[in-house]
Amino acid sequence: MMQRTKRSLITQLGLALLGLLVLFGIWQILIRTLDNPAADSSTEKQLDPAVLDKKLFTAIRDGDKAQVRELLQLGAKLSNRDESGDTVVMRAALHADAEMMRILLEAGADGLARSSDNTPPLLRTHHDIEKMRLLLDRGATVDDFAMLAAASVPGCQEALKLLVAHGGKANPSAAAYTPLMAAAGTGDFDAVNYLLSIGANVKVQTPTGFTALIAGALSGNPRVVATLLEKGAEVNVVAKLERGILQTPVGVAASMGHAECLKLLLAAGADVNVQGGPFNHCALLGAATTPSQETMKILLTKADIAATDWTGRTALDWAERSGDTEIVRMLRQVSGAKKGDGPAKPSPVPAINIPVDETAIRKAITRALPPLQQSEQKITETRSCVSCHQHGLVSMVVGMARKRGLPVNEKIAGDERAYMIKDMRVRHRSLLLGTGIDPTLSAHVLIGLSAEGEPPRRVTDALVHYLVLRQRIEGRWQQENYRPPDEASDFQFTALAIRGLQAYASKGRKQEIAAHIERAREWLERTPTGDVVDKGFQLLGLGWSQAAPEVIQKAVQSLLKEQREEGGWSQLPTLDSDAYATGLALYALHEAGGLGVDQASYKRGLEFLVRTQKADGSWFVASRSFPFVEYSTSGFPHGRDQFISASATCWATMALMQSIPVVDSKK
User: Fold this and answer.
1) What letter would DSSP give residue 575?
2) What is the Cα–Cα distance from 444 to 447, expressed in whole angstroms?
3) DSSP secondary-structure letter at 632?
4) pLDDT tens digit string along 470-526?
5) How far apart are CA 169 and CA 194, in angstroms?
6) Which domains does the chain have, with CATH numbers?
7) How many angstroms separate the CA atoms of 648 and 667, rounded?
8) What is the DSSP annotation of 451-467?
9) What is the sign of the dihedral through the CA atoms of 452, 453, 458 and 462?
10) pLDDT tens for residues 23-81?
């Protein structure tokens, strides 16, 4: 009897213990579910191949190695592709680090499988030598494109050596853009020197006549130019680009204000008077638009001072667009220099004189919005291209206006946003190779899309990668045109690139992008500024890159010192205050410098803008840049000055909008 009772008690205790274990197991499942609400509640759903594959690509993009390993254990397939046709290796090459690629390759991923557009994975790794090494060790083929892609990235000497060790050649098999041209264009002396040491042909020309020497002159690195000349580069080569634009080494150096490069070219026998193209451009006319006195001094010893552009304007005419500068005085002193007639300036639209208060500011904004949006729509129709002044900046304006409850034409905004995305989608493959777009435009597009709340997508990933590839060794992003004031400052490009990268860097690239931004911040801090445009964008870049407070305040004070008595800012000390400089200065002071809109200096700036707005809603600013495309109207006021006036109107409108409270979207 006692034994039966004992056995019964043991049985009951066992059952109780079993029950406790079951309850504990259920509790653990609940804990895991609560700790990971994103986890699938259904085992069947977790093991769904489509779900697993989608999660795998997301985890790779996010750089989540633990999640990738777990998904592979659950059965995610390494052979699948994402919606754009990329393999897991290509996704990792673009978004993750080398260790992620190693995990995938060691798990059996094919490191040689191409994307749906036939791009090999190796072409996605030329920004990261460790990723490149992983693929080369697994048999990746080094072709002409691989060498060219690597040479396009500043600081590429070691990558080039690695590619050459695996069969890469310095000279492409067909006449085309060469690695030497690419390296010279970024001003990378070490890469240029290495390519020349392994037999790169310095005399090769593209079908348009472009050469490594032209590229080197464009970069502004005199060591590159000197080395190319020493190796026998043709100094008087003439390239004829699209639309008939002519480029020569000396013309490029002069137009960019690269005086040291210009000296080397002239010493080698360069002809400074080569002239032609649709705008009759020559070295002297280009130099007249730059602030480089040294460049002009060098040219005046050999240049034809009477040279005129397609309208009859002389170098003096172009120089005078920057006011009474030292370059203007130099030209006036030269025997034979005279002012040509040039084109007539558009008749000014009378300014509206009204008291400046919030009502007046709101009216000024609502007057400016329609012509800006309509011109954005018109430029799409007439040029079929995306522009900085009528797409990127207008998108910034539209995004700010929408947040403040100001009237926006949503039909135009939606159409133009879709057009920008469509245009960038066509350029996708080129962007991933660091080509296919005007450099500054890439940053404008990213900032514009971000301002309008556009989520990350394939084209924004490509634009981010493009910017990563274009950063120079010293940390800046370099302008490749000189079109003042809107495409002339490296401070501008650098600040905009920082903001674009911050807006759209994928999770897997956050650490990498942070390093690029840190290099840019260091360049911004140590590099002296020139004009107000430099100062405004320097402040924006410092603020966006989170420089130290004392560094930002120093930049704030430097910019505030430039404010004129009438409340505005001028692009140059020799010019009157205008909406471009004033709008940019105010925007930067508030956005990055923390200057309150109720501060006296800010209010004086707002008063200047409201006082100088035209009745049609625009602000007028005269162009100072030599043209490079045929004129076509966007419908914005002010004729040939419409594009810089549109940019000025954007900056002025954004400065005004900063004084209007953001509407609470939750109400």
Assistant:
1) S
2) 5
3) -
4) 999 999 999 988 889 988 999 999 999 999 999 999 999 999 999 999 999 999 999
5) 12
6) 47-141 (1.25.40.20), 358-657 (1.50.10.20)
7) 33
8) HTTPPP-HHHHHHHHHH
9) positive
10) 445 445 444 444 454 444 444 445 788 899 999 999 999 999 999 999 999 999 999 99
